[in-house]
Amino acid sequence: MTLPEFDAVVLDVLGTLVDEPAGLRAGLREFGPHLDEPAIEELVELWQRHIEFEQRRVLDGARPYAVSDALDREAARAVAEAAGVDDPVAEVALALSARKLPPWPDTGAGLARLAERYPLIGLSNASRTALLGINAHAGLRWHQALSAEDVRTYKPDPEVYRLAVTVSGVRPERLLMVAAHAWDLRGAQDLGLRTAYVARPVGDPPGPFDRFDLYADDLADLVGRLGHAPPGRLLDRAADER
Q: Which sign does the torsion angle of CA 105, 109, 110, 112 carry?
């Protein structure tokens, strides 16, 4: 029997399977009922900038590793100060809103269909505890969920992707990394994983020099394309779309 080109699917979580900004907006509406929508959008951007900046500092060696829960607490503090709210209890609740993220409409069905054909591995920068909460809240289906906390760094450090390689027990080129973030897929590519870009409104779209193995409009589209791919080959739309 001809084996498929890959043996397992590795999926990013934040942004790819769950709508992170929507969850933060919901948390902010509870935190500050007085806030209007433009103010909420500014605070969501502040939160995400803080997380991105601090993760980059960890990757650059400018600060010791800190789990995502600690970064969320820092972000919640920065947001509370910017909003002029001094309520430690509400601030703790706001930090936890980073775990209450709604899935995209096609996520549940897409994961279920993928799981019928492949082992599924979730791979996230979220801590083990946060990932448990995110998975439970969004109803995500995995065969294995892996956190960057296990290697005390963040994607796109190759050590995070190596976690999936180690757990799967197969060569990197036998794994398909799925993400809505081009930077995430570049990191996986650097370690030799195959890559699939899934477009999301909050993702990081491919640049002019990116060449991924598969491009999909959403997770449902990805499932359909994989379902119609001939054995031993991935579909490649790169040439047609560039």
A: positive
